[in-house]
User: Fold this.
Amino acid sequence: DFCKLPYIKDICNILNNSYTSLAPVEDFDNDGFSAMETGRGSDWRGRDCVDNDPQVYPGRRPLNSDYFSDSNCNGIWGTKNDTFLSLEQELCKKSQPRGLIFIGDSIGAHFHMPEVWINPLLFSWPGLNGSSVILDEIDWPQFGFATGFKNITRNILIQGLTDSLYLRLRNRNRCNHRDYQNLSQNGASSYEGLNHVNSIARNRTTDNPALVIYAMQGNDVCNNFNDTINHMTSPETFRRNVMKSLFLLDEKLPPQSHVVLVELVEADFIFPAMAERLHPIGRLHKNVFYKNLYEWFNCMQIGPCTGWLNANQTLRDITSKRARKLSTILKYIATNETFKNFQVHYIQNPINYLVRNDKINITEFLEPVDSLHPNQKAQVLLTETVWNFLEKLPVLGPVNPHNDEIIRIFGEQGGH
Amino acid sequence: VNGGMSCAVCTVLTGVTMQIAELHEEDLFNATKRLCNVLPNKIRHPCFRIVDKVEPYLTNLSEKITPDLFCLVYGTCRVDKGQPFCHLFPLTMEQEEMENVLKKEREKMLPKI
Assistant:
C-alpha cells in the first residue's frame, strides 16, 4: 500500500480528509477558510486574512462597517480622512457585492497532469518537485476558468495565461475581492452534489449573496465499467440528485442569490480528433497512440470515460444521447422550479458551444496527457464563453463606480 | 481488473523510467537511482535501499521486457480469469515466446523481494 510509506502516509491522510469534506486542511478558527494555499486552502477558497477569528472571513457583510479592521478580507477598511465615514460603507454598501461559488468536477477543478511527468523527451528532474500539486489533488484551481486568480510565472509544470469568472466578477466590483469558493472534485457527479453543497461556507444571515454555478459536466455518463450504459445516472435519479442539492442550497444561501445550472458536455468529438495522434508517453519511439491508451483504459477498466473514449461509435452516440437527456432535466428545472433564496438559470455548456461553433482546434484545446480535460489555453476561452452567457442573465450585479477609487486607496487589496 | 490502478501506475512509471534510461544510455538500475535522488528526504533512503536490493534484477533485465511485462513479472499487474492481457505498449513478441520470457524472468529474485 503506497499510503503506508513514511511521509506519503501523512499526505494520504490529508488528501483523504479533504476528499470527504472538501474543507481546508488547516483552518484554525474553523470558519471554512484558510491562510494556507494548498489542501483545499486559498487555492480553492478566498484566503482567510485572520485565521484565528471565526468572525473574519471572505464574503461576509462587514462587521461594524469595517471602521477599524477588515472583517471580510476584501482589503477595504478604515475611514475617510475628511468625513470619518466608513470606506467599506461608502465604496461597497450600494454595490451589491456577491461571491462566486463553483460546484463541479475535474473540469471545474482544472485537472492537469504535467506532460513533463510522462513524456521522456521532456522529462525534467525539477518537474518532479510537485508536492503542492499532490496536495491540490493534481488540480490547478488557482489557474482555472472558474476561480483562477494567480498569474502563471516561470513554471515547467503549467504554462499559459489566467482568466476566470471570479477575476471578472472581482474586476466588475472590487468589493468582491477574495469572495470565491471552488467546490469541485475529480470524478464528481450529481451524486456528490449534495456533499459539495454541504461544504459551502456561507452564512445565510451574515454573508453577502452568492452566484453559484452548478457544473457537473460529465461523470453522470462517464464511468470506467465495461457495461458503461448500466452505470450511467438514470434521468429520474439525476433529477432527484439535482433537486436535493438545490433544496440544500436554498437552506444555505443568503437571499437574492443566483444558481446557474450548466448543460452537460457532449464529448463524442474527442475520439475522432485524438485516436490517431501520438500520446506523450510514446513520443520517443512513436509507438503509443491515444487509441492505444483508450483501449488499455477500457481493458483494465480504469479509464475516466468508457463511453466517449471508445472506438465504438454507437457507444459514443449513446453516451452523448444520455448526456443530452440529463441536460434537458437541468433545463426543465431552471424553467419550472422556484426557490425562496435564489433564482435558478440554465446555460449551454461552454465546451459544446466552442466545438459546435468551430471556435477551437480540438487537439490544441485538450490536455495532452489525458486528452479529456481542457488545457490552460482552453481555460481562457472557457472563461470568455461562460462570462458571455452570464452577461445575458441578471446574475452579475452592477459595475461598481468606485472601483478606481478602491484601487487608488487600497492597491492590490492585500493580494490573494 | 488485472491489477487496476496500481498496475497502471507501475506501467507508466516503468515506461517513463525505461525510456529515460535509454535516452541517457544507462541501465534501469542507475535511472531508478536518479529517480530516488529527487524524492523528499524521508523516502529517498528507503528508495535507495529497495533499488540496491533489486539491482541484480534491474541490470540483467531481458531486452524484450516491455513496461507491461515488467509489471506483470513484478506482480503489480496480472491477468485475471476470463480477462485479456491488457497492454499500453506494443507487444514485441509472439504469445509463446512471451510466456517463455515471463517464465525466465519470474524465476529471478524480483518477485520474491
In short: Chain B touches chain A at residues 1-8, 12, 15-16, 19-20, 22-23, 34-35, 38-40, 42-43, 46, 83-84, 86-90 (CB under 8 Å). Chain B has a mean pLDDT of 86. DSSP finds six helices and no strands in chain B. The helical segments of chain B are 4-23, 28-37, 41-53, 55-59, 67-74, 95-107.
